[in-house]
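Exercise 7b. Backbone tokens:
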């Protein structure tokens, strides 16, 4: 089922039909990446500025595929370890790709690639002031997310679990808290390894999913991209429909009142 216009994902006052954002790293070939993007049906793809040098003509096939995909480009500051480094890379990406969109990453720990909350907030404030449409990759910490919102970020991208782990939604309590307390679009970014995990995030009321490794490293990336797209849409439809409440005791789905042979056992 394709999303209706009324159910579009709205980021910075711009509507996107797909709630699936896909990364462009780690694929075995540009052709496989192209097939995965098409199968995902996404409207936005991320790309790392450090991966290629478009100004120097490097990776022409890669850039041509991204141009032909019709997707909006979301450059990211992957690999940056300080606010100043991330700001400089964001400014370069705006010049090269002629876009104010940026996925902001400032990594604070090399072991689990956890975002640096202090550097992230500093960079977000300056980039928002410069007119960037900032999508910050952050942890599920409520106070950090509130500060990013106050800094002007109109959407947030908390992790499900550390990048590339495939462990899914490790802190459901924190993620539920974010959804109940924040009034901006929330996109799960990082850590998802299976379509069922993406569906669960959407069933929790999250607005979208961004992932890369689970698709790029699959045996059949295009098939996996299609599976995630289906799961994301199914989870969204379930959220809109309204999930049943969980109960401690069984409740019969077939009414027993009025059945001719129903009687109490003594």
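Sequence design result:
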């Amino acid at each position: 089922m394709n999303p209706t216009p009324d159910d579009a994902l709205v980021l910075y006052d711009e509507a996107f039909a797909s709630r699936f954002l896909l990364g462009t790293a780690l694929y075995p070939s540009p052709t496989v990446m192209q097939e995965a993007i098409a199968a995902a049906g996404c409207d936005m793809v991320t790309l790392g500025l450090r991966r290629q040098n478009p100004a120097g003509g490097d990776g022409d096939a890669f850039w041509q595929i991204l141009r032909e995909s019709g997707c909006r480009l979301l450059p990211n500051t992957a690999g940056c370890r300080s606010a100043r480094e991330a700001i400089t890379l964001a400014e370069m990406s705006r010049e090269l790709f002629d876009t104010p969109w940026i996925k902001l990453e400032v990594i604070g720990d090399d072991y689990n690639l956890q975002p640096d909350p202090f550097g992230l907030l500093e960079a977000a404030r300056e980039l928002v002031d410069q007119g960037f449409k900032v999508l910050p990759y952050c942890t599920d910490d409520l106070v950090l997310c509130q500060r990013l919102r106050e800094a002007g970020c109109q959407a947030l991208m908390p992790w499900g679990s550390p990048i590339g782990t495939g462990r899914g939604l490790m802190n459901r309590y924190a993620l539920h808290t974010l959804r109940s307390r924040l009034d901006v679009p929330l996109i799960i970014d990082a850590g998802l390894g299976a379509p069922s995990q993406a569906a669960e995030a959407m069933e929790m009321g999250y607005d979208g999913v961004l992932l890369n490794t689970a698709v790029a490293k699959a045996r059949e990336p295009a098939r996996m991209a299609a599976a995630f797209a289906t799961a994301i849409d199914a989870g969204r439809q379930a959220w809109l429909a309204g999930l049943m409440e969980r109960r401690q005791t069984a409740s019969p789905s077939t009414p027993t009142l009025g059945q001719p042979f129903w009687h109490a056992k003594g």
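Instructor comment: The chain has nine helices and ten strands. The chain has one domain: 5-241.
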